[in-house]
Amino acid sequence: NFIIFNMSESNCVICNVKINIINKNVKACRACSAFFKRSIRSYQNLKCRRGTKKCVINSGNTIFCKYCRFQKCIKSGMTVTNNNVKIYNKYITSALTSENNVKKRNVTLELPKKNVTEGNELVIKENKVFFDINKITLNINEIFSSTNSLLSNYDSYTTTLQRMIIGIKNLFTCMNFNKPENVTLTKIVDFKKFISFWQNFLKCLPNLLMTLEEFAILSFKDKRIIFSNFWRQAFALLKGIYLTKIIISNNESILLINECQVIDITESDLLELEVDVDKPKEVFSLLLPTLEFYNKFVFKQLKTEDYEDIEIAYLIIQIAFDKLSLNETSPECKRTGREILRSINDELHRYYVNIKKVDNYVYRITEMTNLLFYINEFSNRFKQINFMSKFLDLIDFVMLKQIPSIIVLTHAAFFRRAITNHKNFRCRRGTNRCIIKPGDKLFCKYCRFKKCKEVGMVLKNENVNNSNDCKLQSQPNEEVEIKNLESQNNNTAHLNNDIKIEDNKVLFDMKQINSYVNQIFLKTETSTSHNDKYFTCLQQIMKGINHLNNNLNYNHPENVIFTKHIELKRFIKLWQKFITFSPSLLMALNEFATLTIKDKWIIFRDFWRNAFILITGTYITKICNPCNEGLLLNDEIYVFKINDAEFIDNEIGEKKSKEVFSLMKPTLMLLHEFVHKPLKDENYDNIEIAYLIVQIIFDKLTLHKTSNECQKIGDEILKVISDEIHNYYVYNKKMYNYAFRLTEMTKLLLFIKEYSTREKEITTISKWMDLIDLSFMDSI
After folding, report:
1. Per-residue pLDDT band at 433 (split at 50, 70, 90)
2. pLDDT grade for 249, boundaries at 50, 70 and 90
3. Which of 318, 345, 493, 640 could be joined to 740 by an S-S link, Cβ 3.0–4.6 Å?
4. Which range (65-74, 280-289, 399-408) has the least confidence?
5. Every domain range in the chain assigned CATH 1.10.565.10
6. Do the beta carbons of residue 591 and residue 713 sit within 8 Å?
7. At the top level of CATH, which class does the domain 129-394 belong to?
8. b vs e for 546-567, b when ≥16 Cβ sit within 10 Å of the residue's Cβ?
């Protein structure tokens, strides 16, 4: 049945705005009809903003009371039929259902809860996981299309962290996280239930962000960018919080499968994996190291520190407005993010001082910020496992639609298949010298496999007799290495500085440098004078930094020379000098000098890259740079602008030199944006740089590899320097609210680690692409 439309001008019966009405059933504007439709579909439970339930809805108002607007819609006769609102306006041009066939339904404010998992059937076929991700995407888009906070009624008298606490409680209700006492330990891993659990989280999570008024007013694009980087880390944090409330006999190694079941990952051999893939055990064994990492560095800290609701809300907002995420958003979003971070740091400071009566919160807030790094690291590892499992043909998480961050994993998968299947390749061109370069759809398998062996790929815990004669290499004995180093010459004056480049490989003998470093570490006394035993930890490190800067010639930034031509050998000599002299910085600390030689080497291998970035970055900030452009040292004398430089080395070739620099340039800009700029903007004092150096030395990921005694010393040192930096802020700087500065300073370490990780990946990729081989750096 068709309806004849009569076009006439009238006013909307709800908001009184002028519109063109094409049907006399309900004279409503498009905005009011869309509001009514959203209210019904999202099952909102509205409240009057003034409490009178008699608010006047006028066309001149920019913000309407949602409760009174919704009630007026109902009274005007609006109805819902087949999820389509019965509203006729000038945009409708198709035939509509006759009014006689429409049955009105009563709409009340007490709406039933929507089943968030309905209609999304999960299918696993041929080792691939399928379900309709579009339904979740549409749900997220619908929520983010609004510019009103879900807690708009509370905005006038609640703070940012208080609103986030309410949002977390609502999320826990949506996820059925309110009864941890009912959780049971199981040995059956139902994969479909886990995916449904994850899917449910994705549907509930957008509402958590929309509790913030500052987030709700952002553009739709900015919201999606933030959410895409937010959800994995938020999932890792919030499920960890729920795990801490579960009471099970051995809850140090439990993993949440769904809201009511957990497993013990230490009993992996006894678990029954209900997943329709060919090799379920291999899938779980691939996940196990990352799950153990999560338990040791995320879950354990959450359980030990027992963070309060306001601290969890603080961490959630830190994740949402992470600098790397904000870097992709609009300038307005970046400003909003920075204002929110300042606001929540002030709020947390007031909570500690006025409510908890805690003046010194340095250690706690530093550990909280470090927790963000471990959560981010877990998220990155999980993404890599997803990509690896796909190429090993174990399981393909199709619904995640993730882009890998490490290109070399494809070649690792190829290498593994070649070994396990006893492949015998022949060069497709017969030259045995095919060039493996990006962009090619088909590689010569023989030359690809040969290149895999050349870069040092091996299989762990595999005994395979391969016709290609691939030898499985074992890790060298560290104690034997140390003894061999003791016999080497330890005089810096006789260190060999000869650097050669042959076939794009840098040849540099690190044995003499390693021997020199080993001789320093064999000592059990500090490298500074006896009077320094009365110095504090940070004072000892400050003196060590000054000594290191003297050795590196970092004392005269006004004498640097700007150049456009970058030389590789200058870089290598600068690294060599830092590796040679930085052990003395470590030995300036009494507690480090007393460690075993093995623990010293473990710490130094993880320390030198991050310390090099920090010490060199501090020196760069002292160089006159009026335009605030990205700068980088070629050595202690020559400096270049990242956006105005050429990397040309005759021994490598002009083409490959340019490819290397273009490969490295985005990471160098990350270094400038997130390390060098904060160092210059915040202008950290010497004692703050010393504080960061000690944080790098006794990083938890590094300490985990050392002896128990070293771990105890490291934990004690971190607490001592936290007290020392607190006293400096309060008594020297008269700075009582240092929460924001301390958090940003600790985040600086996270970006340094991020750059260091990316630099290692690029080194591996450039080696594989036959651009340049810097393997000598791994021989420390």
Report:
1. confident
2. low
3. 345
4. 399-408
5. 129-394, 478-779
6. yes
7. mainly alpha
8. ebbbeebebeeeeebeebeebb
What are the backbone angles phi and psi of residue 168, rounded to the nearest 5°? -65, -40
Find the farthest-apart pair of alpha carbons in the chain and give their distance in angstroms, rounded.
100
SS3 for 285-300 is HHHHHHHHHHHHHHHH
Q: Using 50, 70 and 90 to split pLDDT, how confident is the model at 387?
A: confident
Query: What CATH code would you report for 8-101?
Result: 3.30.50.10
Tens of pLDDT, residues 181-230: 888 888 888 877 888 888 889 999 999 999 998 999 999 999 999 999 89
Q: Give the Cα separation of 577 and 548 in Å (integer).
A: 10
Concatenating the DSSP letter of every residue in 225-273 gives HHHHHHHHHHHHHHHHHHHHT---TTTTSEEEEETTEEEEGGGGGG-EE
Contacts 24+ apart (CB under 8 A), 689-692: 689/542, 689/545, 689/614, 689/618, 690/538, 690/539, 690/541, 690/542, 690/545, 691/538, 691/721, 691/724, 691/725, 691/745, 692/614, 692/745, 692/748, 692/749
The mean pLDDT of 438-461, rounded to a whole number, is 69
| Alpha helix positions (H), 154-190 | 160-174
Scan for tokens 């006492």, then name that residue.
181
Q: Find out if CATH 1.10.565.10 is the number for domain 478-779.
A: yes
Give the Cα separation of 585 and 592 in Å (integer): 10
Task: State the pTM of this model.
Answer: 0.72
CA 161 to chain centre: 22
